[in-house]
Amino acid sequence: MSWTAYLAAFALGYLLGSIPFGLVLTRLAGTQDIRAIGSGSIGATNVLRTGRKGVAAATLLLDVLKGTLAVVLADWLSGRDVALVAGLGVSWIPPIAFAVIWLVVAGLTRYSSLASLTACAATPAVLWGMGNEREALLFLLLSVLAFIAHRANIARLMNRSEGKINLRKA
């Protein structure tokens, strides 16, 4: 496979992943600027802090679908190795494991960031256990980047000031 296909898949994944559905949907819903509340993130958990459960669910769904679209398109156009570059699309088991881990940790602790980081840390092991060593190493790198990107959340978790998920309020 040519480097052009890999670069195109990476660009496709990056561009689709850059669509800020949380920002777009909250603006369309007429809520306050999502970047000015909670963590300032445009993800579904912060959208939930606006009190709009439907908008948060739509954000989550569209964020999942944009990643899925990148993988499916790259796989269809150039094959599995290229699809991996577009978004780690190897099978349904790792994302389901990620989601289950996230749900369990979030349900027990009410911390979205802790749930995400725990699921990120566990997913390389799931991939490794499935025999997907290359994918496990790639996801390990992505997990390290997630931990670096969420170092402010980690600091807030450590000093017990991280905001919790509050479904009653939303």
Percentage of residues assigned to helices: over 70%
Low-confidence stretches: none
For the record, give the distance between the C-alpha atoms at the N and C termini, rounded to a whole number: 48 Å
Q: How many helices in DSSP terms?
A: 9
Task: Based on the model shown, name its key terms.
0% strand, single chain, 170 residues, mainly alpha
Structure commentary:
- The structure is a single chain.
- This protein has 170 residues and is mainly α.
- The protein has helices at residues 3-17, 21-28, 44-48, 53-78, 80-87, 93-109, 112-129, 133-149, 151-158.
- The longest helix has 26 residues, at 53-78.
- The termini are far apart.
What order do the helices and strands come in, and which of them pair?
Elements: H1 3-17, H2 21-28, H3 44-48, H4 53-78, H5 80-87, H6 93-109, H7 112-129, H8 133-149, H9 151-158
Concise account of the structure shown:
With 170 residues, this protein is an all-alpha fold. The chain has nine helices and no strands.
